[in-house]
Design a protein that fits this description.
about 375 residues; 6-stranded mixed β-sheet; 14 helices; about 40% helix
Length: about 375
């Protein structure tokens, strides 16, 4: 999973990126301190791996990972090249989802490119640039499809789809607000629409309000906007996340408790990302390795096996499955099997979050 972190300049993007990934990148008080995108890979926190490790004593523990891409601050006119906008927008097209950092705090010492804090205005500026960039892309796609109309009747469906998306974009509606058939998705597979990507708003709020974000009028305004767009939203404080990242593991929980917070921003962001993208994790466990594998919700057992190796999917025979909860409650696999909790599932089985699986295959 690859998440692009976007937002206006000086909203806390690079500070949040550094905190999430442990990377040392500039976080200066001026626009465009980030030009080339910084990339950081983060392990997905999953306490189930630690529990399984106690049972299997593996040589290796491998969590699922998320890749964060810190993309330079966008400004008005980015879709036409302002502030190196075309270059930055191309980086966003390569991501699976967008983490849109929006400033929801007041601070006269931190320059705001729009003159003052207004999260809905700021969010709309970025949204409009994404929409305008997609509009240009779709107009060109429609032109190409129309040129094929005489010799390719199937192009008519593509022209119709382009016209529908163009009408929405022209009205200021992001592409993700529309519904798409399987045929539509196939026609768009080579057209990476930015405004079609899922969005999570990361509301960068004042540290004094982190435990009670509903008391922030800026957060409430952004939350209403997010709900109207079917987007996710989480409250974070980039400053606190940066301080948290510098602490040793044993000092983090007391630090959070002093602030009245139960969950770090990274955990909230990953949880919301999985929810928004419709992802789950299944687990494999043994003496060599305990590992988490991320798959789309709805994957069948053979497709899930293919995440490990294509041979597993091609030669799939069956999956031996036990739920994580049942395995931990029993204490070991043999006990779980004796109680009938280990199931033999075939090609039609739909994987569930927390399944502990052994795939049987033959090639």
């Amino acid at each position: 999973m690859k998440l692009g972190i976007v937002g206006l300049p000086n909203v806390g993007k690079s500070t949040l990126f550094c905190a999430l990934t442990g990377s040392a990148v500039p976080a200066e008080n001026y626009p465009f301190c980030t030009i080339d995108p910084n990339v950081g890979v983060v392990a997905v926190p999953d306490s189930r791996l630690d529990a399984l490790a106690k049972l299997y004593h593996p040589k290796k523990i491998t969590p699922a990972v998320i890749e964060f891409v810190d993309i330079a601050g966008l400004v008005k006119g980015a879709s036409t090249g302002a502030g190196l906008g075309n270059q930055f927008l191309s980086h966003i097209r390569e991501t699976d989802a967008i983490v849109h950092v929006v400033r929801c705090f007041e601070d006269d010492d931190v320059t705001h490119v729009e003159g003052g804090t207004d999260p809905c205005r700021d969010a709309s500026i970025i949204d409009m640039e994404l929409i305008l960039s997609d509009l240009d892309l779709m107009i060109r796609k429609k032109d190409r499809a129309e040129k094929r109309l005489k010799g390719d009747k199937s192009a008519a469906r593509e022209v119709e789809l382009c016209e529908r998306i163009i009408a929405a974009l022209d009205a200021g509606t992001p592409a993700r607000a529309l519904e798409y058939s399987e045929t539509d998705e196939e026609l768009l597979h080579d057209t990476p629409l930015i405004s079609k990507k899922p969005v999570i708003y990361a509301a960068n709020i004042d540290e004094d309000l982190l435990a009670t974000p509903e008391e922030s009028r800026h957060f409430l305004a952004l939350k209403e906007l997010a709900e109207s767009q079917n987007a996710g939203i989480i409250p974070v404080c980039a400053k606190i996340e940066a301080e948290l990242a510098e602490l040793d593991e044993e000092d983090r929980l007391p630090f959070l408790q002093d602030l009245g917070i139960e969950t770090p921003g990274l955990h909230k962001l990953i949880r919301e990302s999985y929810k928004l993208l419709g992802l789950i994790s299944y687990l494999t466990a043994g003496e060599p390795e305990v590992r988490a594998w991320t798959i789309p919700d709805g994957f069948t057992a053979p497709k899930a096996a293919g995440k490990i190796h294509s041979d597993f999917e091609r030669g799939f025979i069956r999956a031996e499955v036990v739920s994580f909860e049942d395995l931990i409650a029993c204490g070991d696999l043999a006990t779980a099997a004796s109680r009938g909790l280990v199931r033999s599932e075939g090609k039609e089985y739909v994987m569930k979050d927390g399944d502990v699986v052994l795939f049987r295959f033959n090639v």
